[in-house]
Structure formats: C-alpha cells, structure tokens
UniProtKB/TrEMBL annotation:
Residues 49-334 form the ABC transporter substrate-binding protein PnrA-like domain. The keyword Cell membrane applies. Residues 1-21 form the signal peptide. Pfam families: Bmp (PF02608). This is BMP family ABC transporter substrate-binding protein. Its main location: membrane. Keywords: Cell membrane, Lipoprotein, Membrane, Signal. It comes from Planomonospora alba.
C-alpha cells in the first residue's frame, strides 16, 4: 500500500496465549470456520478506512477502531488502518483501492462519505468484500451496509436530557445537515418531548452539504454551544464527530450544564478536565458492527446486503458510566427503553 497512508499492523498472537474463558472458544470457532471455508491457516488481512479525523476523535472513528482492535485480539486477524490525507472523493477511492491492491479483505469504510468510492472500487475488485458504515444507498453483491437505528439511541438521549434539565431547554448540534444526522435530531427531540411535555428543543448544524467540514470543526461547535447556553439551554447533545470536543468544552465551562456525547461512551474518553460534564452518551456500537462483520467474513459470509443494528441487537443505547449524574433519571430512561423495545413507542427518523 502507499507509504503516505498511516497504518498500524497487528502482531500475530499465538492461539495458546488466548486461553482466557470465553475468548479462547471464540478464537477456536473462528479458526475452525476459516479452515472449513478453505482459508486454511492463512491469516485474514483486514483493511479499515477511517472517516474524517481518523483514530483519536473520541467518537465515531474510535468506535470503529475498537472493533478492529478486538478482532486483532480475539480473532487473530492482521489489521491495517488508513487515514485520509485530504477530504475528496478521489482520495477516498484511492484509499480503498490501495487497501485492495495490498490484498486486504474484507475492507471496511467508516462513514457515509465513502459511498461513491465504495461503489466504484468494489466494482473493480469483485472478489474483495467491502463493508460501509452508515450507508445503504446502493447495493452490490460484494458490499455490506452496516446501518444503525440512531433515532432509537437518540430518543433515549433526549429523554435523559429533558429529565435532567433544570431550565426546561435542551439543545442539539449536528455536524452536517443531512438525512443521517437528522435521524439523531428527530429521535432526540421526540424523546425529550415525550419524557417532559413542554420542553424546548433548540437545534443547529455546523455545516450543510456539499460542505462536510462540520465533522472536524470543534471551534464552530463550541461557538454554537456557547450561544445555546447563553439562551438558557442547559443540556446539549452533539452528534458531530470530532467537532464534539468543542461543544463539550463550552458545556464544561458553564456551571450546571450537561453534555450528551455520541457514538462512543465519551465519559470514558473525554479529557479529565471536562469528563464530569458528560451526563450520558448515545452509544452507537460501531465497534460491534466492525467486529461482527470481520467475524462473519472469517466464517465464510461473503454476501452483500444490509445489516441493521438497533436496541434489540445492542446496536445502540445510552451510557451510564457517569453514575452519579445519571442516577436521578436512570429508572425513567430505562422505562422509555422498554417501551421502545416492546414497540409501544416508535422513534421518528425525520425532524
């Protein structure tokens, strides 16, 4: 693969070293499946192409990276990561093409912005399995779409925010105004309104297509958050990738205000100086999706299609790591979760 790509190769670990309860059984099953599918002892070589920001965004990309890390440890795959040098369709296609030329299979693209590139490159490499997170806008026999019920997780985040708010005003900041991010907004606003009738929800976006810079503009997110806080909003949910750190900084600087993270459990990943301001996070289990896709490949699943991750499959949820902060509203939020699970409540996908 091209030298200018930032890569991280996993070291091969002997199966005997993984003799921990449960983990060993998973490795054995994967190995047996691999042999049964004609892979023999050849190590599966995975390629993971990051979205804007790459590993270290404490959100979307880090969740995907966690899935690859787990696959390296438990399934003994050889994993390589690729970070974009620039934001362009040509660069995305070149990144995927470089992974394919390097013999990576499967190749997992993180984010809907890879849609056109995956469609193009997958056609060039029909014997390679591709997976794309957050997009099902097209179909191909060798492409798997990994999509999520973000509206369900966001519904829970909205309920928690509304119940925790003292002012009765909560806010949503989206990275880019598009249908995917509007699922987050819709679920959040509906969950807040149901949990606390009369709550006021403010919503704003950092950028609008064709400008996708909203996922990497923490300064702009911070400014929007400061404006919301000045208007009386005291709980802000930010779904904007790496931009979320800016909003969190603004919230942490305002006494009595709370932040709601996204994708990863941001109470666990935030800097010590701001982490106590994280009430909860809408957890989107991109890590599970990446791991399970690699596991499926090892077991012989090469077919394309759509795999959806929702509350019932532990694909989305809300974090409770900040136990002291979430405790006063947790029982009520859990009750909302049960209503989503039994179908008595449906989270909307459009604002």
């Amino acid at each position: 693969m091209r030298n200018r790509k930032k890569t991280a190769l996993a070291a091969l670990v002997a199966a005997a070293a993984l003799a921990t309860a449960g983990c060993g059984a998973q490795v054995e099953t994967a190995a047996q499946a691999a042999v049964g599918d004609g892979l023999g002892l050849e190590q599966v070589r995975v390629g993971l192409a990051f979205d804007q920001g790459g590993r270290g965004d404490k959100s979307f990309n880090d969740a995907a990276a966690a899935g690859l890390d787990r696959a390296k440890k438990e399934l003994q795959v050889d994993g390589v990561e690729a970070t974009l040098d620039e934001e362009s369709e040509q660069e995305r296609a070149a990144t995927l093409r470089g992974l394919a030329e390097d013999g990576r299979n499967p190749i997992i693209a993180v984010g809907f912005l890879y849609a056109a590139a995956v469609q193009e490159v997958a056609a060039e490499y029909p014997d390679t399995t591709f997976a794309i997170v957050d997009d099902d806008s097209f179909s191909a026999s060798n492409v798997v779409s990994l999509v999520f019920a973000e509206e369900q997780g966001s519904y829970l985040a909205g309920a928690a925010a509304a119940l925790k708010s003292r002012s009765g005003k909560v806010g949503f900041i989206g990275g880019v105004r598009n249908p995917l991010l509007q699922k987050f907004e819709a679920g959040f606003a509906a969950g807040a309104a149901k949990a606390r009738p009369g709550v006021r929800v403010s919503a704003d976006y950092i950028s609008t297509p064709p400008d996708f810079s909203g996922f990497g503009a923490p300064d702009k997110a911070k400014k929007i958050a400061q404006g919301m806080l000045a208007s009386g909003v005291d709980v802000i949910y930010t779904a904007a990738g790496g931009s979320g750190t800016g909003a969190l900084e603004a919230v942490a600087a305002r006494e009595g205000a709370w932040a709601v993270g996204v994708d990863s459990d941001q109470y666990q990943t935030a800097d010590p100086g701001v982490r106590d301001a994280v009430l909860t996070s809408m957890v989107k289990r991109v890590d599970n999706a990446v791991f399970q896709e690699i596991q499926a490949f090892i077991k012989g699943d090469r077919s394309g299609g759509v795999k959806r991750f929702d509350l019932k499959t532990d694909g989305v949820g809300y974090a409770t790591s900040n136990e002291k902060a979430i405790a006063p509203v947790r029982k009520k939020v859990d009750a909302v979760r049960e209503r989503l699970l039994d179908g008595s409540v449906t989270a909307p996908t459009k604002p």
